[in-house]
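Severity: low
Component: inverse-folding endpoint
Summary: output formatting inconsistent between runs
Steps to reproduce: submit the following structure tokens with default settings.
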């Protein structure tokens, strides 16, 4: 019994010693992000779509490519890049589809303009039906 207790104490001490010596800043400089940079990285993670997963951001995905993109974003933040620079580099590497909110450009104009156009068209059609219906009621 005494031997078992000694083994457990030694094992526990080794676990605590290993946890205390595992400084994330020494093993990976990217892990040493401050609170502001961590919040910035988390915001960027949510803006970037996982190239493999359907409808998931890199923050939600455990795919290897998402892990790689998260690491890349953290490294760029540590290197002093702005959010715009990071997003531009990702778009250059993966295309506009990597962003959840595509930018307004000639390629994405229909994507942004179509909802507005169809809403206005529906309003005009509805208005015309109401005008016709009220004029038919007057003539009847």
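Observed output (run 2 of 3):
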């Amino acid at each position: 019994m005494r031997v078992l207790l000694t083994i457990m104490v030694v094992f526990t001490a080794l676990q605590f010693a290993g946890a205390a010596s595992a400084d994330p800043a020494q093993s990976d400089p990217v892990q040493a992000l401050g609170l502001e940079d961590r919040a910035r990285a988390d915001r960027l993670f949510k803006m970037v779509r996982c190239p493999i997963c359907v409808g998931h951001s890199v923050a939600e995905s455990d795919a290897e490519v998402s892990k790689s993109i998260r690491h890349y974003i953290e490294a760029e933040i540590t290197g002093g890049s702005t959010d715009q620079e990071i997003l531009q580099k990702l778009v250059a590497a993966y295309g506009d589809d990597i962003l959840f909110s595509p930018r307004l450009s000639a390629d994405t104009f229909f994507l942004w303009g179509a909802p507005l156009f169809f809403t206005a068209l529906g309003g005009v059609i509805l208005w015309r039906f109401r005008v016709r219906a009220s004029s038919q009621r007057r003539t009847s």
